[in-house]
Amino acid sequence: MVAHIENLLTPDCENCQALCCVALAIDKGPEFALDKPAGMPCPNLRTDHRCKIHENLTDLGFGGCVRYSCLGAGQWVSALYGRETWRANPQNARPMMDDFATAREMRAALELLIAAARLPLPDALEEERQALITTITPGPEESRAALARWPETTKPRHQAFLVSLRAVVSH
Asked: In principle, which of 15, 59, 106, 152 could form an S-S bond with 75, CB 3.0–4.6 Å?
């Protein structure tokens, strides 16, 4: 099960609508060669959701793109919308960007839950860890509900779990 869960954290750009290239703001500096506001497509993004400078990102000043990982959030959200791309259906752009931000938070939480498996967790904390993993890695039919639950229910529960790890880590 752990290997399957860890695979969820691997970005699959071939099955994504380049959500990171649209949703994220970038600031010109050592990691990025230009400024781009959130919600605007990167000027290097082709209409097929591929980067026209992908082979030369670092050389052209986009090392931040090389190092960024959406932790699999991009392909998850893209799959939720199926063939409904933000380009073909601009009304989907804002909901997709919002879902991408939430999904990225959820995947970061999953990454921490996987790491917590290396701790000597008491049974109650291990059960909570497993329950949280199940909650934030839903099947396709439950994905929208999981995204909706995250801010109000699951995120606070995850944060409380992380706080409870202090007792384990401090020993």
From this structure: 15
Contact 93, 22 (CB under 8 A): yes
Give, as one character, the DSSP assignment of residue 40.
S
Interior angle at CA 120, CA 133 and CA 163, nearest 5: 60
Instruction: Give the phi and the psi of residue 91 in degrees, each rounded to 5.
Output: -65, -20
| Spatial distance between the Cα atoms of 155 and 102, rounded to a whole number of angstroms | 10
Q: What are phi and psi of 67, to 5 degrees?
A: -85, -20
Q: Is 114 helix (H, G, I), strand (E, B) or coil?
A: helix
pLDDT class of 136 with cuts at 50, 70, 90: very high
Residue partners of 4: CB distance under 8 A and separation at least 6: none
Predicted local distance difference test score (pLDDT) of residue 3: 60
pTM: 0.93
In eight-state DSSP terms, residue 137 is S
Backbone phi, psi, residue 36, to 5°: -150, 125
Q: Which long-range contacts (CB under 8 A, 24 or more apart) does 9-13 make?
A: 9/69, 9/71, 9/72, 9/107, 9/110, 9/111, 9/114, 10/72, 11/69, 11/70, 11/71, 11/72, 11/74, 11/75, 12/72, 12/74, 12/75, 13/74, 13/75
